[in-house]
Design goal:
This protein is an alpha/beta fold. Helices cover about 45% and strands about 15% of the residues. It contains 15 helices and 13 strands. The termini are far apart.
């Protein structure tokens, strides 16, 4: 193979069109809701398909694309299928899908302005828009991350810098400060406690009431730690929890933090996009009082992975989190001016310009339409809640605040343990059948079924089909 000749051949429109056709066909084939949502195969079966020696010689691009169509697409999770109601991963906005190839072709690295002149400026502007939406002022700022886990880690790194300014040089010492968080917070919080050198003992959970932080218990925990002379590095609230999509009372939690001068971080990875919705914006009332916010546009803004965001009420806090100098890269700004390099504000150095797809999505659809999509997903979840609530064979575990709902199949005369096993088996059989895809979790010590609606194509007919499918499987068991 003449590699230089083949490289030039692959730059032709006709070759790129092969991939575009694969994507367009996938989007079209999933539109009707027919066909399997996922795969019936085991990991071992799929691994056998791709086993073999590394190719020493290349193949024509047409043949490679044929393998993609034949061996990759069929057994991937089809998030654009309206019966996919599984994890918090979106059926992404089409314009953002198409922009991904442009981003890859440009391949600019966002750490330094001279390596990505337009991308750096666009990320800064997108951060400005999102900060304004959150109610932050002109001194605010942020950066894109790989997701909410990195965003929360970055925010807590900034909180550590504020609480222990010498930690970068000296470490956290034996008397590590505490992080206080709700028991239903994402594991990113406890993971950050370990990664930041605080130790898991410094992560202090607070019990919940109705799947939200019990503010009274929070206040008591904070006052008790202060009375003991323990430093508190941050309080973490959740806006859109993973299990139930519930929103903590941010105003009340902010009151506790303000009373004691504490850093408030809001993990709004899932629920931050409620800011686009006039009907649901109240869910995040008080978010402007946070010092830092994690938010995932690749969730309820329906963007392709990955597109997370960390926002800071004061951008200087973000820069303080990465108080390291790399003169060969970061040249600094003139006195009194803001530097354009994003590297000093980010955990990563080399990274793609994911801001492009956020910018394109907002240009194509506008903030109001993204809010309307958020409303549609929440409304459809509410409709499912009403169906299940009226059904004698199901119990709903909570009233949905967003697009997540947990429920449990029940049967008279069965023990809780047997119902746990039955619900687990129902989910496994349902997913293996290919007619749909849902998840499961444990709430209150009991196994429950869980749906997350992340696809605008999912409507009432599909949630009715979900209920019918689950009842058929329950009957067969």
């Amino acid at each position: 193979m003449d590699i230089m000749k083949e490289l030039e051949r692959d730059t032709a429109f006709e070759e790129g069109e092969r991939f575009l056709r694969v994507v367009a066909d996938y989007l079209a084939q999933t539109r009707t809701g027919d066909g399997p949502v996922s795969t019936p195969h085991t990991p071992a079966e799929l691994a056998a398909r791709f086993a073999g020696p590394m190719p020493r010689a290349g193949a024509p691009l047409a043949r490679v694309v044929e393998r993609v169509v034949r061996e990759i697409i069929p057994d991937s999770n089809k998030l654009y299928h309206p019966m996919y109601m599984g994890h918090q991963v979106s059926a992404p906005l089409p314009a953002a899908i198409w922009m991904e190839s442009v981003t890859a072709a440009l391949n600019n690295s966002l750490a330094v302005w001279e390596m990505s002149p337009t991308g750096t400026v666009i990320e800064t502007q997108v951060m400005r828009w999102l900060c304004e939406l959150a109610g932050f002022g002109k001194s605010s700022g942020g950066t894109l991350t790989t997701g909410g886990t990195e965003a929360t880690f970055t925010a807590l790194l900034a909180a550590r810098a504020a609480t222990l300014p010498n930690a970068w040089q000296d470490g956290v010492g034996a008397d590590a400060p505490a992080i206080v968080y709700g028991e239903h917070a994402h594991y990113a919080v406890t993971r950050a406690a370990g990664e930041l050198g605080l130790g898991m003992r410094s992560a202090m959970p607070v019990p919940s009431r109705d799947w939200r932080v019990d503010v009274r218990a929070l206040r008591e925990r904070v006052e008790s730690l202060i009375a003991e002379g323990r430093k508190i590095m941050a309080v973490v609230a959740t806006a859109g929890s993973t299990a139930t999509g519930s929103f903590d009372d941010l105003e009340a939690i902010a009151d506790v933090c303000d009373a004691h001068g504490l850093w408030l971080h809001v993990d709004a990875a899932h629920g931050g996009s409620a800011l686009f919705s006039a009907a649901h914006r109240h869910s995040v009332a008080g978010i402007a009082r946070a010092r830092s916010v994690a938010w995932d546009p690749h969730k309820m803004m329906l963007l392709p992975l990955s597109a997370g965001v960390v926002l800071m009420r004061d951008e200087r806090d973000l820069e303080a989190a990465f108080a390291q100098r790399a003169p060969y890269l970061f040249h600094g700004a003139a006195e009194g001016e803001r530097g354009w390099d994003q590297g000093p504000r980010s955990f990563m150095c080399s990274r793609r310009v994911d801001a492009f797809k956020v910018w394109v999505a907002l240009q194509r659809y506008g903030a109001d339409s993204i809010g309307a999509l958020y409303d549609h997903l929440c409304d459809t979840t509410r409709a499912l809640y009403e169906i299940l609530k009226a059904h004698r064979d199901f119990i709903t575990l909570h009233e949905p605040e967003s697009n997540i709902l947990c429920f449990r199949y029940t049967r008279v005369g069965m023990s809780d343990e047997d119902l746990d096993a039955l619900n687990r088996t129902m989910r496994e059989r349902y997913n293996q059948s290919g007619v749909g895809w849902i998840t499961t979790t444990v709430l209150g010590g009991r196994r429950v079924l869980r749906v997350t609606l992340m696809n605008p194509r999912t409507g009432r007919e599909h949630i009715e089909r979900l209920v019918e499918g689950l009842l058929q499987i329950a009957g067969s068991l």
